[in-house]
Amino acid sequence: MTTKEQYGTSELERDFGSLTFGNALSNYRIGEEKTQRAFAVFLGISPQSLCDIEKERRIPSPSRAAKIARQLDEPESFWVQLALQDMLRKEKLNDKPEKGASNGRACFG
């Protein structure tokens, strides 16, 4: 009898790095076999903006992420979540709390 190894998001991140808006969009474009220029035209953005997003030099705003998702006919929530996670990662706000850290409850006087 063999057991199947679980392969989830933590294993994907271990093997391929964090899932970001930029690499998700780049992989989507490559899967569609489109050039950056053609894909940028399809999305209604400049080729330079697409390149900056794919190379993670720019993170789209939530509204721009939603617009891109609609253009791709994909769930807005997924693409907006990726953009927000990238923003948190950039600001280093996605770290897990350290031992002994506050449990998030406010203490007043």
| Count of beta strands | 0
Uncertain residue ranges: none
Q: Major sheet: size, sense and barrel closure? A: none
Helix count, DSSP H or I runs of 4 or more residues: 6
- What is the assigned CATH homologous superfamily? lambda repressor-like DNA-binding domains
Q: How many structural domains does the protein architecture include? A: 1
- Measured as a percent range, the helix fraction is 55-70%
Mean pLDDT: 86
Can I get a quick summary?
The chain has about 110 residues and is an all-alpha fold. The protein contains six helices and no strands. The model has no long low-confidence stretch (mean pLDDT about 85).
Textual characterization of the structure:
The structure is a single chain. α3 packs across α4 (47-54) and α5 runs antiparallel to α6. This protein has helices spanning 9-16, 21-31, 36-43, 47-54, 62-72, 76-90. It is mainly alpha-helical and 109 residues long.
Secondary structure layout plus pairing:
Layout: H1 9-16, H2 21-31, H3 36-43, H4 47-54, H5 62-72, H6 76-90
Quick tags:
109 residues; mainly alpha; 434 Repressor (Amino-terminal Domain); 6 helices; 0% strand
